[in-house]
């Protein structure tokens, strides 16, 4: 009886909020939908992740550790950390500049620039890699000139950096543009009339308004940069200890039938992913709290 | 205020693409005056104000504060106080930090200590009657309070001219009436050259010394409130201000049925324009 009363009450509350009676689906529909979602997540996300660690530990902790401290693995880890740090830095600068110019200025070709920013997302990573081979490879446009000046780009770290940066370039700009468009330029204009310089405006007005979105974008950008396989695979040349990143090293180990070692190194990427998720949740809870505070005060007015 | 300047605009032209926003606008505003730029929406009044501040660049014409040529001066160096229609307060700074911002960014040039900046910001907070709210965030204030913070922030740099873009447009009718009377009294005390943009005839007639009526990017008439009201120079001015007259003498009107509530008048005018 009591339970029925509570249900009625909550229905009333829902009606008050949404202005109509909310449809309640039968139990089996709800249970079925929830089950489908859970099974889907379990099979596609949870199970593979667990299997990565199970397979990594298949030959024991000692084997796991030796696969990771193997010189070739350490070189791959170092290269991956360097490449992701460098490409995230480049994308930070490019993304800020692009978002700033698109949202704060009027100029010809703005629509084209916005479309171009999206391009790396719509092109297959393999094609992105091939672009750089065509440009800088031995038979490429700049190939002879580079060869004559003894500059190595393809099959060396510069091409890996270029390919990774290309593939991850939309993240920062894509995240910032909608936010900065919504915020408008009024605060910046107010700051100019008050005598602030360009740098002071960025430092004291624009940056504080976008910093959490920026952190969020950098995390996603970094996750993608560390895991990039297709584009990097085309340009790297797979030279062990020199141009192998973690994903390439994993593939190589797997092709050599050392699957325990392959999964050990792969588990590192999984751990990076966990760390990324953790930071993402932190950042999201922070931004959610801020919007909540804003909304509370807005509703108080 | 000691540095009230005159504003002199000569033959200002401004186009947005193929749309002529301002067409040969020439205007003088005397030091210490309170001038209202009045016109329907799309008449170019806000563009004119933004050109005075340097936030918009004219295609032709010149601008002087006193005898000083400001035509090519960056908005950063014009020393104008600008109050935006939607306040444009720095959302992540407290009220006091907002007001102190202009002093802080010019600190090196002016040689002010942190304590001097704080004292001056607090004094301005008193002037706009918001004492005690210095540590609030902008989101925690009402619209009228935010508008006054924006005003205090603009005044902090001791501007040569004060420019207000539809300063009361986003406020409800009661607060709007209070604030505009307060602005008039405030102006009497400070004596700073002030220009505000409005589409509300009553607002302009009630508080301005000088009214600039604009339409389609041109100035239709400039004069004291009684002058433009009693001797409108063009049919447009007559019609635009006539609506006020209708309101004030409803008995004489042939069609008093259509006369709406006073505060809704601007909307009616815009709909007709």
Task: Walk me through the structure.
- The complex is a heterodimer of chains A (301) and B (273).
- Chain A is an all-alpha fold and 301 residues long.
- Helix content of chain A is 81%, strand content 0%.
- In chain A, helix 8 (157-168) packs antiparallel against helix 12 (230-236).
- Chain A starts with a helix and ends with a helix.
- The two termini of chain B are 38 Å apart.
- In chain B, 45% of the residues are buried.
- Chain B is α/β, with parallel strands linked by helices and 273 residues long.
- Chains A and B meet through helix 10, helix 11 and helix 14 of A and strand 6, helix 2 and helix 5 of B.
Structural class of chain B: alpha/beta
Number of strands of chain A: 0
The poorly predicted ranges of chain A are 1-8
Largest interface here, residues on each chain? A-B, 21 and 32 residues
Distance between the termini of chain B: 38 Å
Tell me, what's the shape of chain A? globular
**Stretches of chain B where pLDDT falls below 50 for ≥5 residues?**
246-273
Biggest β-sheet of chain B, characterized?
Answer: 6 strands, mixed
Q: SSE string of chain A, helix = H, strand = E?
A: HHHHHHHHHHHHHH
Rg calc of chain A = 25 Å
Classification by helices and strands of chain A: mainly alpha
* Sheet having the most strands of chain A: none
Number of alpha- plus pi-helical segments of chain B: 10
How does the overall form of chain B come out from the CA principal axes?
globular
Mean pLDDT of chain A: 85
| DSSP helix fraction of chain A | over 70%
Report, as a whole number of angstroms, the end-to-end distance of chain A: 41 Å
- The portion of residues forming beta strands of chain B comes to 15-25%
Q: How do the strands of the widest beta sheet of chain B line up side by side?
A: 6-7-8-3-9-10
Task: Report a brief summary of the structure.
Chain A is an all-alpha fold. Chain A has helices spanning 2-18, 27-56, 60-69, 71-104, 110-122, 125-136, 143-148, 157-168, 170-183, 186-193, 198-227, 230-236, 246-255, 259-300. The longest helix of chain A is centred in the last third of the chain and has 42 residues, at 259-300.
């Amino acid at each position: 009886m009591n339970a029925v009363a509570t249900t009625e009450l909550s229905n009333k509350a829902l009606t008050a909020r949404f202005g109509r009676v909310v449809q309640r689906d039968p139990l089996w529909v709800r249970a079925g939908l929830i089950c489908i979602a859970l099974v889907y997540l379990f099979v596609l996300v949870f199970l593979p992740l667990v299997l990565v660690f199970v397979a990594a530990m298949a030959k024991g902790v000692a084997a796991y550790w030796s696969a990771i401290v193997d010189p070739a693995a350490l070189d791959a880890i170092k290269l991956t950390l360097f490449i992701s740090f460098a490409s995230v830095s480049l994308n930070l600068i490019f993304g800020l500049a692009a978002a700033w110019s698109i949202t704060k200025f009027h100029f010809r070709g703005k629509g084209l620039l916005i479309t171009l920013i999206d391009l790396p997302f719509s092109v297959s990573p393999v094609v992105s890699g091939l672009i750089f081979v065509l440009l800088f490879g031995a038979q490429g446009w700049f190939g002879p000139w580079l060869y004559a000046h003894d500059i190595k780009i393809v099959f060396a770290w510069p091409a890996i950096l270029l390919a990774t940066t290309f593939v991850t370039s939309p993240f920062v700009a894509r995240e910032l543009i909608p936010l900065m468009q919504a915020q408008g330029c009024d605060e910046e204009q107010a700051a100019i009339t008050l005598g602030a310089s360009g740098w002071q405006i960025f430092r004291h007005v624009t940056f504080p308004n976008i910093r959490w979105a920026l952190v969020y974008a950098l995390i996603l950008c970094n996750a993608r940069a560390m895991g990039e396989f297709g584009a990097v695979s085309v340009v790297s040349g797979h030279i062990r200890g020199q141009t192998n990143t973690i994903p390439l090293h994993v593939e190589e180990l797997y092709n050599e039938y050392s699957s325990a070692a392959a999964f050990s190194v792969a588990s590192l990427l999984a751990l990076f992913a966990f760390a990324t998720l953790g930071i993402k949740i932190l950042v999201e809870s922070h931004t959610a709290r801020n919007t909540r505070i804003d909304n509370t005060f807005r509703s108080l007015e | 205020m000691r540095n009230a300047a005159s504003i002199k605009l000569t033959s200002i032209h401004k186009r947005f693409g193929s749309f002529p926003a301002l067409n040969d606008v020439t205007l003088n505003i005397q030091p210490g005056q309170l001038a209202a730029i009045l016109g329907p929406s799309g008449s170019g009044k806000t563009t004119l104000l933004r050109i005075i501040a340097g936030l918009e660049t004219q295609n032709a014409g010149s601008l002087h504060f006193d005898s000083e040529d400001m035509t090519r001066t960056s908005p950063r160096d014009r020393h104008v106080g600008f109050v935006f229609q939607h306040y444009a307060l720095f959302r992540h700074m407290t009220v006091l930090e907002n007001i102190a911002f202009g002093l802080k960014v010019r600190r090196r040039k002016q040689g002010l200590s942190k304590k001097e900046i704080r004292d001056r910001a607090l004094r301005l907070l008193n002037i706009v009657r918001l004492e005690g709210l210095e540590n609030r965030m902008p989101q925690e204030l009402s619209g009228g309070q935010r508008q006054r913070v924006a005003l205090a922030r603009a005044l902090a740099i001791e501007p040569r001219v004060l420019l207000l873009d539809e300063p009361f447009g986003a406020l409800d009718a009661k607060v709007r009436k209070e604030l505009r009377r307060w602005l008039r009294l405030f102006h009497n005390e400070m004596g700073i050259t002030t220009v505000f943009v409005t589409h509300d005839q009553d607002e302009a007639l009630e508080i301005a010394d000088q009214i600039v009526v604009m339409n389609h990017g041109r100035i239709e008439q400039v004069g004291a409130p009684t002058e433009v009201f009693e001797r409108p120079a063009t049919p447009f001015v007559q019609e635009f201000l006539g609506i006020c007259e209708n309101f004030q003498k409803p008995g004489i009107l042939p069609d008093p049925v259509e006369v709406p509530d006073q505060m809704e008048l601007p909307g009616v005018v815009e709909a007709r324009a």
